Amino acid sequence: xxxxxxxxxxxxxxxxxxxxxxxxxxxxxxxxxxxxxxxxxxxxxxxxxxxxxxxxxxxxxxxxxxxxxxxxxxxxxxxxxxxxxxxxxxxxxxxxxxxxxxxxxxxxxxxxxxxxxxxxxxxxxxxxxxxxxxxxxxxxxxxxxxxxxxxxxxxxxxxxxxxxxxxxxxxxxxxxxxxxxxxxxxxxxxxxxxxxxxxxxxxxxxxxxxxxxxxxxxxxxxxxxxxxxxxxxxxxxxxxxxxxxxxxxxxxxxxxxxxxxxxxxxxxxxxxxxxxxxxxxxxxxxxxxxxxxxxxxxxxxxxxxxxx
Length: 308
Fold this sequence. Notes:
The chain is mainly alpha-helical. It has 13 helices and two strands; from the N terminus they run H-E-E-H-H-H-H-H-H-H-H-H-H-H-H. The protein has helices spanning 3-52, 69-75, 80-109, 116-128, 131-141, 148-155, 169-197, 201-209, 214-225, 227-242, 246-251, 263-272, 277-302, and strands spanning 54-56, 62-65. The model has no long low-confidence stretch (mean pLDDT 84).
């Protein structure tokens, strides 16, 4: 064995020894985090899976094992295809519009102009305010009898008469998408703005001196530098939008049936109105599985940890 190989072997053995010795020393520091993860993630998820295999009465009494009957009931539900389609449209449209608008807004806020600090602070307001409060303001503003938004649209001639935006499935769902984009833009904008401020100024100046135009500079120099910020923004928005309940609950709550429901609002209805805890648990497992699958595929495709 050569001296170099011997040294490499010694280094590897020393590294493994340090790792074994470091774990007990690090355990007191990471134990609270592990306990917290178990308490708020692992245990609830495990209990949810357990309930999905039980026969639970409307009063909450466990009547014994049900096997996969709850899942069979869920997949035989004729409303499920429409609900899954609504969920896909909801997530795709909201996340796409949020990221595109945030990229434009972040580019604008990255430029120096008078009052930029105040504008940046104003962008945070929809994020800082309660989602329920913001959605409620939109809901009552769109009421066809006294809503201020309806009155404005009639006064400027866009509508001939007040329209019940929240009374039917498609308009209510569309308005919910607008509200979701509105409250999602601040976080995404600031994430992208942070990425923009990390772009080296000398790289932009070098591209400009080489004769590149504004569009070429953005797509060839700036946009590749935003890869990490955009990936994080999309991933967090997918999870948040997929599991969002308040906006859809308020905006589409008065729509009869399940035409405007996503998985989250459907779970809420099954749990609150039908009081079917076991079926709601099976739906929650389905919801959890879809989210994990989407995140896994997304991470596999974009490789967020890949170095440029």
